[in-house]
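Sample 1 of the test manifest.
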Amino acid sequence: MSPAIELIAINKRFGDVHANKDVNLTVERGTIHGIVGENGAGKSTLMSILYGFYEADAGEVRVNGKPIAIRSPIDAICAGIGMVHQHFMLVEPLTVVENVMLGAEGGRFLRAGEAKVRTELARLAKEYGLEIDVDAIVGELSVGLQQRVEILKALYRGADILILDEPTAVLTPPEADALFNLLRSLKEQGKTVILITHKLREIMAITDCVSVMRRGEMVATVETANTSPPELAELMVGRRVLLQVEKAEKSPGRPLLEIEKLSVVDTRGVLRVANASLTVHAGEIVGIAGVAGNGQSELLEAIAGMRRPILGSVRLGGREIRPSEHNPHQMREIGLLHVPEDRLRMGLVPSFAAFESAILGFSHEGRLGHGPILDHDRLIADLSAKMEQYDVRPPAPRLKTSKFSGGNQQKIVLAREIERNPKVLLVGQPTRGVDIGAIEFIHRRLIALRDAGVAILLVSVELDEIMNLSDRILTMCGGQITGERKPSETNEQDLGLLMAGVTDEAA
Amino acid sequence: MDLGIIATLFDSALRLSIPLLAACLAGLWSERSGVVDIGLEGKMLVAAFAAAVGAYAFDSAWIGLLAGVGASVIFGLVHGFASISQRGNQIVSGVAINMLAAGLTAIVGNAWYGQGGRTPPLEGVQRFSGVLLGHSALVYIVLLAVPLTWFVLGRTRFGLRLRAVGENPAAVDTAGISVTGLRYTAVIIGGVLCGLGGAYLSVGQAAGFLPNMTAGRGFIALAALIFAKWRAWPALGACFLFGLLDASANQLQGVVLPGIGEVPVQAIQALPYLMTVILLAGVIGTAIPPRAAGIPYVKER
C-alpha cells in the first residue's frame, strides 16, 4: 500500500528566508504522524504547502502514491486533505452550518445545501461523538467547540488526511484528552492524521511516528516508540538541552505581594476576576495555571496598575497601595516590575530600534541622558552589555525590534525589567513563541531571581512551565482562584480538573 | 397639518432618499466584502456628470444612465485596484476618488460646454419622467435593489462568501475561494448602485448636471449605512428617515417660531446633518462593522 503523503525535495523561500530546504516526508496511511520543531523551523510552511496555501518553489507532492499539483486549497480538498489551522479559519458572526458550508455550498442557493449539511453533521456527531449546536453563532462558542467546527468542516469535505497545527494550544487538559480520543478514533476509521506541535509530551502520547524539523530542514523521522523527549529536544535544537531546569528547595521569606479579594471588570463591564486573594513571599515563585482567557491576564494587569480593580486591596512589602498611586509608573518606582504577556503589544514597540524598546517605561531615568535629551551612545552601550549577558542574537542594539526572533525579543524585555532590581516581578507567558533553547535560559534567569529573594508571580498557559518553575501553584477558572497545590503533590489531571472549575469542595 | 401636506412630505422624502439609498446600498456591498468605501460621494458625482453628458449627447435618458453607471464602475475599479490589488489605504484612496471626481467633473464640464461646469439643460426624453405615481423608473429600480440585496446576501452562495470575506478573508482563502475576485465583484456592484444614484440626481431629479450636485449625499449615505448596521432593510429605513428630515427642512423654511422669530434657512438646512451627528453619537448603540473592513488581505507567513 502506498503512503498517504509523500513530500519530495520541497523548497520554499520567503525573500531571504529559506523556510523549507529539500524537505522529504513520508506519512503512512492510517497513522498519526507528529511533526515537531521550534518556532520558525518550517513546520507550518510545509503544511501550508501541502494544503495549497502556498506554492512550493520546487518539489513534488504525492497523495496515495500519485503525484499531484496542489496550487490552491481546492486542489488539496479534492485530494482529501483537510487542515485545522492554529488560528481558526472561521467566520465568527456566522452560524456553524454556514461555516461548514462555506466553499462547499452545493449549489447557487443556500437552502438545498443547508439540508445536506444538517444531515451530514448529525451523522458525524453520532459516528465520532462530535455533537454541536448547528445553529449557534460560531463566535459565541468556546474555543474547544470552535475547534470542533474546524474538524467538522474538514470531515464534511471528505478529508481522509487531517492536518492539525498546534491544536492543543488553546485547550484545557480534559479538552485535549477528548481531542486525542477523537484523533484515535479517526485513525481507527483508516484516516491519516498529521499533528504539528511543540509539546513533546503529546508526541509521545499519541503519535506513531515523529518527524523533527530544524531551521527549514527535516533532520529526522523516527518511530515514536523508539525515541524519548530528551532525544527529540536535542534533535530540535541541535544540542543537548535541559527540559527541566534544576531548582533547589528554598523556604520562602516574608510576604512581599499580598492581594486580597480583588475583583476586576473589563471594558465591556464583564467581571473577569472575582474575589481573588493570593500572597507571594520573598524567594518564591507562585504560578497561576489556567486556560487562556480565564482572568489571569486581567489579574496581572490589575496588580501592575494597568487596570483599576473595582474591589479589593493590593499590598506591596506590607504597605497598602493607595488607588492614586496604583499605576504602572508608580508601581515600578516602588519595586513591582512586570513582564507583560503580550510582548509585541504591551512590552515593546516593534518599529523601534532595540535600544529604544529597551528603555520603555524608564526613559525618565536621569542616567539615560542629559535632562530631557536621551544619550543614544550610552543607551546603545548599555544594551550591548545586556545583550551579551542575556545572549541576545544578533547582538545589534540598533536593529529594529521586530527583526528579532520571539525568544530574543523576550530576552530584551526580561533584561529591561530585571535590571531595575525588582522586589516583586510579574511575569506573563514568559516563553510564548520562544524556542526551546531560549526557554531554558529564561527559566534559569527566573529561578536565579527567586533564589536572590525576589517574589515572582508567574502566569502561563503551559502546564509544564508552571510545574517546573513554581513553588506553589494556583489555578484559575472563570475569574476565580479554584485551587492551590504544591508541584510535588499534584499532577496534570488534578490541575486540569481545577482549571476546568471542578473545585476541591465540589469534587 | 392636513393629509395633503403629509402626502407631499412623504413624496418628497422618497425622492430625496433615493440617491441616499443607492449610495448606501453601494457602501453596504463594498463594506460587507471588507472594502471601506468613502468614495461614494465621488462616484455618484461622476455618475451624475456622465449621465447628463450621455443623455444630452444621445438624446436618451437610458443611454445617460448607462454612461453614469459606466463612469461610476470605472471609478470603483480604480478604488478596487488601489485597495484590493495594491493593498493601499482604503481611506486615502476614497478621499482621492472624491477629490478627483469633484475636480474632473467641473473642469471637463466647463471645457465642453462653457457654462461654469454645468451641462446644458435636459428636456423631454433626455430625462426620466414619471411612470408610476409620479416617480420614474429609476426610483423603482433603486427600491428593488433593497430586497435583492437582502436575498442575495442572505440566501445565496455568493452572498455567504461575500459576508465571510468581509469578516475573515483568511477563512475564505483556505476554503479555496478567491478573496480578490469576491472583493472586485462587490466593488463593481457598488459602482453600479452609485451610478444609479448619480444618474437619478442629474437626469431624474434635476435636469442636468451642476458642479458638486451630490452635496455630501455620499457621506450621509455612509452615516445611514452605520445607522443601519450594514443591513439592507434597515438601510431603506435609515435613508428614508434622512430623506424625511431633508424634506421637512424644506417645509419648515420660513416658519416663524414663537419667541425666536423666523428660523434662518441655514439652521433648517443643517438639521439632517445635525441629526446624523446625534444619531451616530448615541442613539443607535454600538454598530460593529464587518471585522475585516478596511484591512487589505495579505496571506500571513
